[in-house]
Amino acid sequence: MIGLVALAAGCATSPEQPKVSVPPNAGVYRIGSPYQIGGRWYYPREQPDYDETGIASWYGPGFYGNQTADGEIFTAQDLTAAHRTLPLPVNVRVTNLENGRSTILRVNDRGPFAEGRIIDVSERAARLLGFYDKGTARVRVQYLARADLPSGEPQPFGAGTPADVVTAVSAAPTASVEAEALAPPPGANQAPVKPKAAEPQVAATPRPVPQSDPGALPTGQVSRIAVPTVTHLYIQLGAFSDYRNAARLAARFGSEVKISAIQHNGQTLYRVRSGPYDATEDADSALTRILNLGGNDAQIVVDQ
């Protein structure tokens, strides 16, 4: 999805816990096979350039003590999160775009499966990010590195990756959909999603990923990052370098969506969007309408 451009991190930090949070019962490194939930297909894969905006939620007591998708046991105090397609486990930076609070979390589970949510975090993570009481927040999620296993060393690149996933049709952008970065003011960049109407293309074999990064560990430290004073929510169905592709997609949804052009690296990109919406409830309702109209790849993104 096309979203906002990030500012550099601020200086203020507040350590919550000095020790790195790696569950002692950590499981195995895995990616997993494509799967379908609620009529939508998800394609777990290596995503070293993952950087998206959306709405985060948190999951709690009903899941405590359950086994996560990579074999760990979920508790309230874990610095962990659930994501639909990232490899497991990996470390990501999650930034609350409403208050600038940012921390590193270990993705070790699948979800969320409620439409319109980009990531589920643990109770402790929600408290650190400042949205425990509210329940949801506008966030940016950035891939950092693979997370350590109990041995202290991640699996070799490609471990746990089914051969059909390496060559599967990707749910992420292909050549006809390009990533975009807006000019300042600040925010976060969201990767575009390939619309269902586009001709299927084979995803390229993923490039090697750094095995670990000592500076990308979930320690409970909270950073303060400059974020926009005002953001809006959009339902984005796709982004194209060819206007005709955008027009074909937009024609399926009539007045529900608009095409907006933006410049990136001397090239024009055409985004198919609905919005803006100020309230999460309004964006949720719009997403439901578009999904019911057949916009299966539509997502909520945060922009200005």
Give structural notes.
- This protein has helices at residues 123-129, 163-166, 243-251, 280-292; strands at 9-14, 35-37, 40-42, 51-58, 80-82, 90-96, 101-109, 119-121, 136-146, 222-225, 232-240, 258-264, 267-277, 299-303.
- The protein has one domain.
- The protein is built from 4 helices and 14 strands.
- Helices cover 11% and strands 29% of the residues.
- The strands form 3 sheets. The chain has a 6-stranded mixed beta barrel. The protein has a 4-stranded antiparallel sheet with strand order 12-13-11-14.
Summary tags:
globular; mainly beta; 4-stranded antiparallel beta sheet; 6-stranded mixed beta barrel; 4 helices; 14 strands; 11% helix; single chain; 304 residues
Shape: globular
* Main pleated-sheet profile: 6 strands, mixed, barrel
CA gyration radius, whole angstroms: 18 Å
Question: Strands across the major sheet, in which order?
Answer: 4-8-5-7-6-9
Low-confidence stretches: 5-18, 154-210
Helix content: 10-25%
Q: What is the count of structural domains?
A: 1
Count of helical segments? 4
Q: What is the quaternary state of this protein?
A: single chain
Protein structure class: mainly beta
Order of helices and strands: EEEEEEEEHEHEEHEEHE
First-residue to last-residue Cα separation: 14 Å
